[in-house]
Design goal:
Blueprint lengths: L1 H14 L4 E2 L1 H9 L3 E8 L9 E2 L2 E2 L5 H29 L4 E4 L4 E8 H7 L5 E6 L13 E5 L8 H5 L2 H5 L9 E6 L16 E2 L2 E2 L5 E3 L23 H10 L14 E6 L10 H12 L17 E4 L12 H12 L3 E5 L21 E6 L27 E4 L3 E5 L3 E5 L2 H18 L7 H11 L5 E4 L2 E3 L12 H11 L4
Parallel strand pairs: 1-7, 9-13, 9-14, 12-13, 14-15, 15-16, 16-17
Antiparallel strand pairs: 2-6, 2-7, 3-4, 5-6, 8-19, 10-11, 18-19, 20-21
């Protein structure tokens, strides 16, 4: 059987002429009776670096105008270039989803002959897999302890990065909207319900505040496919959201408890469901939140900063172009995208799953409990899978024994880089609350966080010496120093 599959892949390779078709697509065709779920990336990525409006670059626009210009431009490019591909797809009677955050079309159960026709087109740059895959909870990201009654004035990880020092100055994230893409969120949790943007004085409006990235799938677990309110059947996403924005009127677990949050389900751990399209659904929702069915997107409602505690296995995402373009769209809109580095340490070059390895996102490693020492499981750089050899992670934050919210209105201690990135998400909310002049300036904020981090030099570890390095990145985040530096930058007394 394996020999036949290899021979079929070789034959298919000869048939696909102009466009790069991922080998896994050919593999899927060989084992699925000549059909495959695919993601078709169009040739025009929108060229956002060259985008101007009324003679101004994107950096010269206010945040509302910037969001509208970027979204409008990306939508226009997608509508224009995808027209013929969508017409072909409709003619074949195939199900599809059009995306603009990345200029691409997801096409389901596409026959081999149809894929061959697409591969002959000049307006397509890549045909990649969109197959569903299982997302196992990484072994380090587990429930170490569970308690309903354990309470601390402020959780240790919050104090460790000195968020409480920023609170003492009157800044807890007010006016900032955070986002989280994960297994979902239990929005009625006592530590989260007050901060949910969809909570309108006890009445809930989920349009523009929640999106189910699994809406086009079947058998999604306890939280049904297309669930119309924030839902989490595992607890991982609820834990992450709590570390960012939890605790306004309950246990103090969040770095930015006065911030508001919105959420998106990118994968389901219980049903073990995800695909490249589910990740794109969430990134598109964060670029321009929409109604529950995806209609009427509005970039004015986009969050300020988002965290993403997942990675796409290389077997299913051998090419990360679809995520890179989406991440760039978010950055140009002024949305800070923060991603967990992964839990495959202590080996080097283990930051190897998109989006954590990408150069245009901020990836976070994990330090231990009440120490700046790196966690043994925290993935290291350098990045070798794309030949860039660039440094990763970018920064480190507490990620061992982190207490936060879980389903059932309870609290638990988890460990993993998934626990570290939400803390950085909350830290950005504090910085932008304290120094509004810096708000939505992603590159400047990233540089400032890196420059003010607690330096953790290494010696001959993972092809790096001193600081920054491929173990800690630029060091362990210090929110108080970052805020002080931001004030100096903008002469704020």
């Amino acid at each position: 059987m394996k020999v036949i599959a290899v021979l079929l892949i070789a034959l298919f390779a000869a048939a696909f002429a102009k466009v790069q078709v991922e080998w896994i697509v050919k593999h899927d065709l060989a084992i699925n009776n000549g059909k495959a779920d695919i993601l078709v990336l169009m040739s025009n990525d929108g060229k956002l670096d060259e985008l101007t409006y009324e003679g101004k670059s994107l950096d010269g626009l206010d945040w509302v105008t910037k969001g509208r210009v970027v979204t409008g431009h990306k939508m226009s490019i997608a509508n224009q270039q995808q027209k013929e591909v969508i017409a072909m797809t409709k003619k074949m009677g195939l199900r599809y989803t059009s995306f603009w955050v990345t200029n691409c079309v997801a096409i389901y159960n596409a026959p081999e002959k149809f894929i061959e026709l697409l591969a002959e087109r000049d307006d397509i740059r890549l045909i990649m897999t969109n197959r569903e895959f299982k997302v196992p909870l990484l072994p380090e990201e587990k429930e170490n302890k569970l308690a309903q009654d354990k309470k601390e004035a402020v959780e240790w990880n919050v104090k460790w990065i000195k968020a409480d020092k920023v609170w003492a100055e009157g800044y807890k994230g007010k006016g900032i909207v955070t986002g989280n893409a994960d297994t979902g969120i239990m929005y009625e949790h006592e530590a989260l319900v007050e901060a949910y943007r969809g909570n309108k004085s006890g009445k809930f409006k989920h349009d523009y505040n929640w999106f189910d990235g699994l809406k086009d799938m079947t058998n999604c677990g306890t939280c049904k496919c297309g669930v119309e309110h924030p839902c989490d059947d595992q607890g991982h996403g609820t834990h992450c959201m709590g570390t960012t924005s939890g605790g306004k009127k309950a246990r103090t677990i969040g770095v930015a408890p006065d911030s508001k949050w919105i959420g998106c389900r990118a994968f389901s751990d219980r049903a073990r469901k995800a695909s490249p399209a589910t990740f794109l659904n969430c990134l598109q929702f964060f670029a321009a939140p929409s109604k529950l069915d995806g209609s009427k997107p509005n970039p004015d409602k986009r969050p300020h900063t988002t965290s993403h505690s997942y990675g796409c296995p290389r077997f299913y995402c051998p090419n990360s172009e679809f995520l890179k373009e989406a991440a760039e769209t978010l950055k140009k809109e002024g949305v800070f995208m923060i991603v967990s580095a992964g839990n495959s340490g202590p080996r080097c070059s283990t930051v190897n799953r998109p989006p954590g390895h990408m150069g245009n996102i901020f990836s976070v490693g994990a330090s231990g409990t009440n120490t700046n020492t790196i966690a043994s499981f925290s993935s290291r750089g350098p990045i070798t899978l794309d030949g860039s050899n660039r440094m990763k992670p970018d920064i480190t934050a507490p990620g061992v024994g982190v207490w936060s919210s879980v389903i059932g209105n309870r609290y638990a201690s988890y460990s993993g880089t998934s626990m570290a990135s939400p803390a950085v998400n909350g830290a950005v909310a504090l910085i932008w609350n304290a120094v509004p002049e810096l708000s939505r300036k992603v590159d400047k904020t990233q540089k400032l966080i890196q420059e003010t981090a607690v330096k953790m030099p290494v010696r001959n570890q993972c092809n790096s010496n001193g600081s920054p390095n491929n173990v800690y990145g630029h060091g362990v985040i210090d929110v108080e120093k970052a805020v002080d530096a931001a004030r100096k930058l903008y002469s704020k007394k």
